[in-house]
Amino acid sequence: MNLRILSILALLGLAQCNKNAAPAVKETGSGLTLVPEGISPHFQAVASKLEVGGASFTYVEEEDVMGLLGGFFEEVIKNMPEKEKSSLPPNFSFRKMMSMIGLDSIKASGTSSRKVSLGVNHHRSFAYTPLGRKGLLSLTGGPAEPLLVPALATKDADLAFEFPLHLKDWVAEAWPVMMDTIPEEQRPMIEAMASAPQPMLGMSYREAAEKLSVRVAVIATMMPEQSISAPGAPMSFPGVNAAIVIDKLGWIKEVLKLQVLPMFQGPESPIELQINNGVWTGRFRAPMGPPPMDFQPMFQMNEAADRLIIVTRPGYLDQMMAADGKLSSQPEFAAAWKGLPMEGNGCLFVSKRMMEATMDAMKTGVATSGSDKASSEMALNLVNLISKHARHPQAVCYANLPDGILTASNTSLPTMNPGSFSSITTLAVLSSLIVPMQSSIQKQAGQMKSLSEGRQVLLALKSYAASHGGKYPEKLEELIAAGALTKPELLTVATQPGAEREPWLYDNTLTPESAGISIVLAAPSVTKATNGKETRVVIRNDGRAESLAEEDFQRVKDYYLR
């Protein structure tokens, strides 16, 4: 028997032994000694969800690894130069981030892989969370349930995936931690923003997030016979039929009924709306163009099913609603899904046809990129290397079990044995979700503070003008001398967290009688979002304070704003 298999089987046997007993030392016959002392209490729970005897098997005690990593990164942060440390959010702690991510709830994890056919591998992984899922892990939703994709996706679907949008548990847990990383003076403003009632929702953004728990599925079928060419693009793309399914609408259903769907009623609406036994059906009155752009979007909200479906064409909805012709009956899907659960929380299926089309598009993109010959050749070689592992359909599913999260997949990815590096990778990836999120919140808080301060300066300008012949001062500093403004720091602004305050851009040619849309004050520098978009804080003469896209600001700003 293979030495590795024998070793693992022996460990499985030892894991079930009475812990109070002292089993004898086991000899495998090949010189490998297995001792009972120190066997993990979590090993059996993880190994029982995996497969032994394939190409690889790994097991990691995550609790110890996470403690080591947390301490290591805390030391790294502690010894960072002050300039670099100041760029981190206030009160930043790697251990807090690990808790927000939920890594401290994973006691152990493991992976296994085996070949199931030529070029296809079956992978399994299990994260053991005996005390429940915390942090970002709670975003995976509740207990596993029948998947939407096999029941709704059409037989010819090339792409089908679903995932939960389950925010309520994470928001309640993460909000206090996130607020702790925001400067104390900005917290009331953020709390006010999050708690302000939103008429369209009938609740605040925070309340909506705390109640949000839906399932979303995306289904698409390629239409190669209807090629779509983008203007100026060197390649064409196959046409597509697509659908978005939102299941378990809950409170969103009432918002749609009361706030959104009534807007589509009436003969002047471009959408024809029908209501029949609690089913709201709406479709555009005509296609949006000739084939292949003959999209005629349609939606159906079924109150009893608590489900909303939006499709690109009416015929696609008919296919989805039909009792037969489902993806689960397609031989390619059945083969790709072999050994995967039909109940879970999220899944993905990509057909062979879509994999090949994606590879062809990548090759065309490289060939027409305009890069130098050496770079193009290197990129093309990489694409060709990837394409060798992309000649089969791909399928993956994950399910929340009572004691952890199980992921199973049949993919062309080769067997990998990540060992402890899986912990580092997971930590790096999930941390990358949190830190930008906090950075974004801080930037928004900085902008809100700047908008509030700008309004105060505008009020001081109008107060000054009331006592000085209806004119604004030559310089903003005159507001202090005249007593219209009592805080000198308001003459400057800082829109980026940790940035130095700079004087406002100011247009001294305006008066209270000037056009309300005129920009009186503007931040001297832009605020850059995580997506690269640049905005600038501006205060208009009618009291409006807004964050304006930089390209719009440059287009409308006046020469005298300086």
Summarize the structure.
The chain has 562 residues and is of the alpha+beta class.
Secondary structure tally: strands: 26
Mean model confidence by pLDDT: 80
Calculate the terminal CA-CA distance, rounded to whole Å.
81 Å
What is the helix content? Answer: 25-40%
Beta-strand residue fraction: 15-25%
Shape: globular
Oligomer: single chain
Q: Strand order, main sheet: write it out.
A: 3-4-5-19-18-17-7-10-11-15-14-13-12
Which spans have pLDDT < 50 for at least 5 consecutive residues?
1-25, 416-434
Biggest beta sheet attributes? 13 strands, antiparallel
Helix and strand composition category = alpha+beta
Q: Radius of gyration, rounded?
A: 30 Å
Specify the number of helices. 17
Q: What structural keywords apply?
A:
disordered N terminus, globular, 562 residues, 17 helices, 5-stranded antiparallel β-sheet, alpha+beta, 26 strands, single chain, 13-stranded antiparallel β-sheet, 34% helix
What does this 3D model show about the protein?
The structure is a single chain. Helices cover 34% and strands 25% of the residues. With 562 residues, it is α+β, with helices and mostly antiparallel strands. Strand 25 and strand 26 (545-549) form a beta hairpin. The N and C termini lie far apart (81 Å). The model is unreliable at 1-25 and 416-434 (pLDDT under 50).
